[in-house]
Design a protein that fits this description.
heterodimer; A: alpha/beta; four-stranded antiparallel sheet; 8 helices; B: 441 residues; 2 domains; ten-stranded mixed sheet; 37% strand
Chain lengths: 252, 441
């Protein structure tokens, strides 16, 4: 589904991604771990088309299309979804309006009919309920006055509504207490299916107890220095990153 | 002939059309105003109050006073396009500032309430007009004296003590001409007696290939415990010139709400002034200016806190695109006597292009020592991270921007208390953003 080859990217002229290679197939869950500043969030932003990040080299194909040629909205309509680390507040725009606009844009792109207001509302209520969200959030402004946990939950709600093929979770666990973490993970697990893939960006192993990855990659200085299975995450939790970094130094 | 001489000269023709009306007291005031006009000049940028607004494009042209111009007529259907719909209201329509009886519809009113037009009422009920007319608005410049000299018509709403006008009064000021540049001079009078309430929707629209000058003066008397709301929506042509001075005087425990939604013109200048004449008064000013092209909007607001225990709250927001130019000057005086004053003021502007500019100036003069006053002015751009967030959900860039702009404007719009009006103003915002028409049907 997603194929990344030698991806290099800079922010403000500073090189952050240094040649990433990664293949993700439908139905798989991958986790990217790494110390602060290793380029985890940059990867998420580059894949979703944030123009603050400049791709200097490499190729990314998504559902057999050139991802890097697409603007952010086209990527989203093709099925790319980023759950933001810091979701944005949009005063004056209700969750319902926002989601309806987004969903109908995505449906229009796929050649589907727009949902009727009732269909949309029924769907929204159902998904909100699955995440234990109060119905009143439907008419509230997007993320305005939401707690950290509510914002993350709202990201997952958007995912459930937009039904993307590929989901990037950018430090979705940061700032969440254990209950919120379970709810958010549960949302992801409800949605998980053989046609979707996930890339979970996280600093800690904790989230991976709930969203169990098929593969774990360690990002360091903009490169994947080690890949393994979920056991690698546990090892990282125990030993930290230093031994890997040392190993890497020996190789170089 | 320069425009000043033209206006002086045109007065004779104007008088010749008045017949019996020239004997009315109001005509004496017009003649006095003309004298003042003769000896005064249009403001220049040397005047501090007009520093950022160059009115010479207006002064260079001679606009034909509407009374002397070819009359334009409209059908109800044509006028309907410009009205705020679904608002249960009294309706007054002025074409180039002159009342159109057949297009207006004034419903049943509480006993003693007068809602009508200046020209008829100054004939039918001169006493009631004379008591208030010109008592608040002093002539400060040639625009004011020009208005007074040609003050033939305008809205008059006189609400006696204790009466509540439940339906808002919608006033459509439609400017149009066949083939000449017209001066319209609406002169409005809103009088709210003790413990009374009234709301006015002042709806300014233009349909013309020609430029015009709409030069307004509005006097608002808000007596003790009265509540007056004025919703001004100025949605005119790019070629339009629009000047208005609002002069309000408030008695104790009264509330004056003024909304100023401006979609621009070639030059738009608003002076909105309120003077406090009692304790426990509230004044609320809300403004939104949303302009593009070469439009210029200058808002000067003023609250004169003369008495203790009063509050004023002001929020003005602007969205400027292309080469548009905005000016905000918010003056607050807290006089020595006005202890325990609460005065808040905010002006926020978003620039959507590199060549849009705003001059913003909060002007607080505080002479009392026990007061709470704050002001803030910000100028910025749309947040790119927010835009990316919205686009990353599949929403196209233009729509993402428009969502953020509407979100920005929402602080002002959500304070509008008339729901259908609020909705239609939101549509207007959308139309201006996307340069398309939203079908209200």
């Amino acid at each position: 589904m997603l194929s990344i080859k030698n991806l290099q990217a800079t922010v403000d002229g500073k090189e952050i991604l240094n040649g990433i290679n990664l293949e993700i197939k439908a139905g798989e869950i991958h986790a990217i771990m790494g110390p602060n500043g290793s380029g985890k969030s940059t990867l998420a932003n580059v894949l979703t088309g944030n123009k603050s990040y400049e791709v200097t080299n490499g190729e990314v194909s998504f559902v057999d299309k050139d991802l890097l040629e697409m603007n952010p909205e086209t990527r989203a309509r093709e099925g790319m979804f980023l759950a933001f680390q810091y979701p944005i507040e949009i005063p004056g725009v209700s969750n319902a309006t926002f989601l309806k606009t987004a969903l109908n844009e995505v449906r229009k792109y796929k050649g589907l009919e727009e949902l009727t207001p009732k269909q949309f509302l029924d769907m929204l209520k159902e998904k909100a309920k699955a995440l234990g969200m109060d119905e009143s959030m439907i008419s509230r402004y997007v993320n305005v006055g939401f707690s950290g946990g509510e914002k993350k939950r709202n990201e997952i709600l958007q995912m459930l509504m937009l039904q993307p093929k590929f989901v990037l979770l950018d430090e979705t666990d940061s700032g969440l207490d254990i209950d919120a973490l379970k709810i958010v993970s549960n949302g992801v697990n409800i949605y998980k299916n053989p046609n979707t893939a996930f890339l979970v960006v996280t600093h800690y192993q904790r989230l991976l107890n709930y969203i169990v990855p098929d593969y774990v990659h360690v990002l360091y200085k903009g490169r994947i220095i080690k890949s393994g299975t979920k056991e690698l995450a546990l090892e990282l939790e125990e030993r930290g990153y230093d031994w890997l970094v040392a190993e890497q130094a020996e190789v170089v | 002939m320069n425009s000043k001489d033209f206006y002086i000269d045109s007065f004779k023709k104007f008088e010749s059309k008045l017949n019996g009306e020239s004997k009315l007291f109001i005509h004496q005031l017009r003649k006095e105003a003309l004298k003042q006009f003769e000896t005064s000049n249009f403001p220049t940028q040397k005047n501090e109050e007009w520093k950022y607004t160059d009115v010479s494009p207006i002064v260079r042209q001679s606009f034909i006073p509407a009374v002397n111009a070819v009359q334009v007529s409209f059908s109800k259907e044509e006028v309907g396009k410009y009205l705020f719909k679904d608002v249960d209201c009294h309706l007054l329509v002025f074409i180039n500032g002159l009342f159109s009886e057949e297009l207006s519809l004034i419903n049943e009113l509480p006993k003693g309430v007068v809602v009508g037009n200046l020209r008829n009422l100054s004939k039918e009920n001169p006493g009631s007009i004379e008591k208030y007319f010109g008592k608040l608005s002093k002539i400060e410049n040639s625009f004011n004296s020009l208005n007074a000299a040609y003050s033939v018509d305008g809205l008059v709403a006189i609400v006696p003590d204790g009466k509540i006008v439940e339906k808002p009064i919608q006033v459509l000021y439609l400017n149009s001409s066949a083939n000449e540049e017209v001066l319209s001079s609406p002169r409005n009078l809103i009088v709210a007696g003790k413990n009374s309430q009234v709301s006015v929707i002042a709806n300014y629209r233009g349909v013309s290939d020609k430029s015009y000058l709409s030069n307004n003066v509005t006097e608002v008397f808000v007596d003790e415990y009265a509540v007056v709301s004025v919703y001004k929506i100025q949605n005119e042509l790019d070629e339009a010139y629009h000047i208005e001075k609002v002069q309000a005087k408030q008695g104790k425990n009264s509330v004056f709400n003024h909304y100023n939604i401006a979609f621009g013109g070639a030059i738009v200048r608003n002076d909105i002034n309120a003077v406090h004449n009692g304790e426990n008064i509230e004044t609320h000013y809300y403004g939104l200016y949303m302009i593009n092209g070469k439009q210029h909007v200058d808002n000067h607001t003023f609250v004169d806190h003369a008495k203790p225990n009063c509050m004023s709250n002001e929020l003005y927001k602007g969205i400027l695109d292309e080469n548009a130019r905005g000016v905000f000057n918010g003056k607050i005086i807290v006089r020595q006597d006005a202890q325990k004053t609460n005065a808040y003021q905010q002006n926020k502007t978003i620039l959507l292009s590199k060549s849009a500019t705003i001059d913003t100036k909060p002007q607080l003069e505080i002479f009392a020592d026990d007061v709470k006053c704050s002001h803030g002015a910000t100028v910025g751009h749309l947040d790119e991270v927010s835009e990316f967030y919205i686009r990353s959900r599949g929403v196209p860039q233009e729509l993402a921007k428009s969502m953020l702009i509407r979100a920005f404007a929402n602080d002002v719009i959500e304070t509008i208390k008339i729901e259908p009006l609020k909705e239609q103003i939101n549509h207007m915002i959308f139309e201006h953003l996307h340069k398309i028409e939203v079908n209200n049907e």
